[in-house]
Amino acid sequence: MASFTNNLLSSSASCFHLKTSSFLIPNHFSNSNGISFSSPRRVMLYASSTNNTNATSSSSIPLNFEQDADVPMPVVLIDQDSDSDATIVQVSFGDRLGALIDTMNALKDLGLVVAKGSVLTEGSVKQIKFFITRLDSGRKVEDPDLLERIRLTIINNLLKYHPESSEKLAMGEAFGITAPKKKLDVDVATHVHVKADGPKRSLLCIETADRPGLLVEIIKIMSDINIEFESAEIDTEGLVAKDKFHVSYRGAALNSSMSQVLVNCLRYYLRRPETDVDSY
User: Fold this and answer.
1) What predicted TM-score, i.e. pTM, was given to this entire model?
2) How far is CA 262 from the centre of its chain?
3) What pLDDT digit, counting tens, does each position of 23-38 carry?
4) Which of 1, 73, 210, 218 has the CA that lies 20 to 30 A from 179?
């Protein structure tokens, strides 16, 4: 328990009853790590015995876990546009503080700094928002490989603390938890559009079935046809990935011919029944 309080609480630790596994979060509480809490309620601490982001240990699941008949939609959103200095990561699902602490530690293991964050609990859904930067440069994350590692690390922690979410996430099967009962038809689920976004860039919108390594695969396809990109929004909603990118070709927005080439390439590769993906 002491290690958790050192990482998360700071000088306000006297507000918490440390003799039990639960504590009360007061209104608008902020700690030294920049994490603020809203909506007072009693939550439970669950410690994880490992920082290995590829592990899904059942020891971190509370003993009184019961399957919820109405499981909310798990959402992991990576936002590159809203803040010029930091990458914003937002997770929306369940209400276990252990997932927050382990996620922060896992991000640090990736060489990242959680500059600030917030936690908002509404009913059975907790919304966590992190503002993260690279430890080596102090800047936001631009590397697509690292962005994908961030996404998969957060989803792995979500599955570890909320195994009930596995049937609504493609990673439930990929990470060896519980496969979704109903899989998406990749051909039907894939939609690719290019929209105008000013004279120097276009907006690429992609919706397709999620899988590990998807972000890196999309970036590679664009790179192969000399499309330059800026990641705008990487949104994982259950089994579906909804991504948006600012793209350009030779410093200008894509014309109709180049837009069609990009759309055709992405549709072809994303609709393939089997793809070679990197292991994370």
Assistant:
1) 0.71
2) 26
3) 233 333 344 444 444 4
4) 218
